[in-house]
Amino acid sequence: MNKMRTRIQKFMIGRYGIDKLSTYLLYGGLAVVVLFNLLNWEIVGLLGWAAIILGYYRTFSHNRTKRYQENQKFLTFTRQLVRKWNNTRNKFYQRKVYKYYSCPNCKKELRVPRNKGKINITCPHCHERFIKKT
């Protein structure tokens, strides 16, 4: 057991290894292969195999800087998606308490309390004043 571990460690010296993008490619590819083979859509299942092969290619690659940059772009993209999802979810949960308006001058989104009648809103970014019904 220890001998096998040493061989694997020697093999992986100088290689990039597993990261988030490789993990997503491997698991996502496996899910696509299983799902579309159950549906008898073998051609679409080939995309899953391509993702798995790309995941292993990234794992065993010697070009560490290129793989690192790819992973950073992937992490930035997923962070933006998660942030947008969280903002949308928060707006949905707060829809009964707050109303959202866009500033007519700078187009920033503003949150104001509901059921206060007509109120004078001042944008904190550009200090534009406008009146809206809540």
Automatic annotation (TrEMBL):
Gene3D superfamilies: RNA polymerase ii, chain L
Statement: the UniProt record of this protein carries the keyword Membrane: yes
Transmembrane segments: 21-37, 43-60
Keywords of the record: Membrane, Transmembrane, Transmembrane helix
Domain of life: Bacteria
Protein name listed in UniProt: Zn-finger containing protein
